[in-house]
Amino acid sequence: MPSVVFYISGHGFGHSVRQIAIINALGARLSAIDLIVCSAAPRRLFEQTVRVPSTFIDRPNDTGVVQIDSVRLDERATIRLASEFYRTLPARAEAEAAMLTARDARLVISDAPPLACAAAAVAGIPSVVVANFTWDWIYEGYGTELHAAPELLPVLREAYSRASEGWRMPLHGGFATVPRVRDVPFVARHARADRSRDDVRRELSLPRDRPLALASFGGYGVDGLTAAHFDCLDVVDLVMTEPAAKIPSLRGPAHWIVEEDIYARGLSYVDLVAAVDVVVTKPGYGIIADCVANDTAMLYTSRGRFIEYDIMVKEMPRFLRCEHIDLDRFLAGQWRDSLERLLKQPPPPEQPRTDGAEVVADLIVERAAAQ
């Protein structure tokens, strides 16, 4: 069976959740094709939310950024690991090209490993960068650290130049060497239309008569947050999620939800996002798109030296009710003043399209049919 192969960065959850939305949309359009995912992202993300037949290959395809936790990162280790990985890019590309040929790949999607573009070129298969940034742009933000790896950016840019084109999502940066770039709407997850906000709260044993603030920090979490002394509990109830294995050891003034329980009830994480009033997080494409698509406000803090953050902070107020909180106040649990301001905000001035998954799926069908 011919295939479309998705190379998805293992950095955080945002790359995975948006490509899962595309895969689900694509599976509804193409039945006689194998959808293959190559990623080091947690397999459970795909097992919980991919609704169409697919094949998962657990393999790292980039190094992303080295995170200490969701709001702190290690710039020097980031560049060192990237330099080591991409020093062997030609050999990696040859190995991946052999896999693509064996799988009868007709199209390669990159979000946004350069390896995908290099491997597709070796195999003579078209590739498309479907993302809101490219890694060369992210690493440009670490100028001092790059002195130790002068070869890194040229290698990445050359790999991206071998893509056939780029389908660029909002809140973007990079794409300097990607040919034929076209812009697509937000690729976002939408809550189930047949479950109301009250339905979801009832299913998850959450109060229906109180504002709720969901702490959402993906796979990295935030060290020490559960021990903070929150000053906002007269304004909101807090909601936090964790895998079942971690819940018994957790204490604190929050409604703890077992992640597996959300899916066992026929819900998904985005249903929870839509059921709360505020998401407390660091800005990343995935959670921003979720909040935009489901009209949920965002209280956000900084996330270290990550150049995407500046784009997010500049653009978010157009589409999203949002409020910044200083990292020290955030870590101390001093959220009250910021939450009160946020809850009083009017609707954002723009309502962007959030059907990017459908748009991209149509483009993939068009591209695959041409092969």
Structure description:
The protein has 371 residues and is an alpha/beta fold. The protein folds into two domains: 3-187 and 355-369, 3-Layer(aba) Sandwich (Rossmann fold), CATH 3.40.50; 197-343, 3-Layer(aba) Sandwich (Rossmann fold), CATH 3.40.50.2000. Helices cover 40% and strands 20% of the residues. The chain has 16 helices and 15 strands. A seven-stranded parallel sheet has the order 3-2-1-6-7-8-9, with helices on both faces. A six-stranded parallel sheet has the order 12-11-10-13-14-15, with helices on both faces. A hairpin with a 2-residue loop joins β4 (67-69) and β5 (72-73).
Short account of what is shown:
This protein has 16 helices and 15 strands. It is α/β, with parallel strands linked by helices and 371 residues long. Strand 4 and strand 5 (72-73) form a beta hairpin.
Radius of gyration: 20 Å
Number of beta-strand segments: 15
Distance between the termini: 14 Å
Number of helices: 16
Residue fraction in strands: 15-25%
Strand line-up of the largest beta sheet = 3-2-1-6-7-8-9
On the 0-100 scale, what is the average pLDDT? 93
Supply the CATH superfamily name of the largest domain.
Glycogen Phosphorylase B
- Count of the domains: 2
CATH architecture of the largest domain: 3-Layer(aba) Sandwich
Helix content: 25-40%
